[in-house]
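Subject: sequence -> structure tokens, single chain

Hey, anyone have a minute? Need the predicted structure for the following. Not urgent.
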Amino acid sequence: MRITAIESSVVALPFSMGGPHPLFAGQPWDRLEILLVRVETEEGLVGWGEAFGHAAIPATKAALDTIVAPLVVGRDARDINAITRQVLHGVHLLGRNGPFVYAFSGIEIALWDLLGKRSGQPLWRLLSGSAPDPAGLDAYASLLSYGGDLELVARNTADARAQGYRHVKLHELTREAVLAAKAAAPDAAIMLDVNCAWTPPVARDMAASLARDGLAWLEEPVWPPEDSAGLASLRRFGIPLTAGENTAGLFGFRALMEAGAIDIAQPSVTKLGGIGEMLQVIALARAHGVEVVPHCPYFGPGFVATVHIAAAQVERPLIEVLWLEMEANPFDPWVRVRDGKVEVPTAPGLGCDPDPAVLARYRRAAPTRIEARRAA
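Reply:
Had a minute. Here:
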């Protein structure tokens, strides 16, 4: 099953978020952009993947189109482990956590989609999972940042609870925001993600102030994110600690776990290297008694792949869904939440291909196509 071509394309989906659009990495953020990876084989099968993402798309797409895709075209699509080892080793001097790994993540997800389609099995079954609950997996509303506006925090928390979410995550920096959310939805679990805002001394002071507020978890409280000892120093305050979206691969997670720094691991399939690396992190977490809640604020194949992985491999799956309303999405309805639940596709592979009409309408530019050289 030789890979004959790899295409990259970007769709930009307008969205509303219950408040003013923020800046993302210094840029206005009013479109949800998805970097799609399309892998074709000589059998005529097509697999879809997603590479991280958001403001990093120009760098990730350049790495994909110029370096990573040319290393993969012409290979046997079934040989996922060998491709992973050789490609990631081939680009390791270019960075073990960044655009080149993100780019390969998109290809690797597409290879699993192809494997499922070729075998006629959904991804969750390939991953040794039993049939998922038809009602779906629990999701949590991941609110965007409202810049400390407590009225917006309270209103959106209440709205999320009214839509069936029993877990709500804030992207704020104050205890007052936590208390506003708890007052707005007293029966919801509230989590706080500060995106590595604090040095360890400040983080310890904040954790002490939050210790009796009943947070379900405190996410990435320490800067820099690789300071596992600094993160571990917060464990004494009794708030469950989570991290992982900025962690480089299996050994990065091993360092966090061996330091006793986290209660919950948050690997991200579009950043980590794909599904295979994700499975290794889950196995490592299981061995260390660490829970897994994947990081997946995406709305394409990366999100769908995460749903399959969680259904098959995570004991208490909980799926992150950004609290926003898209004008359209090429992967509807599988990226939508109903009554706080996300459905798991049952068709082969990822179980859903994008709607070509939606792709055409929201595609930002013509796809870039890398083809295998034909034998002379």
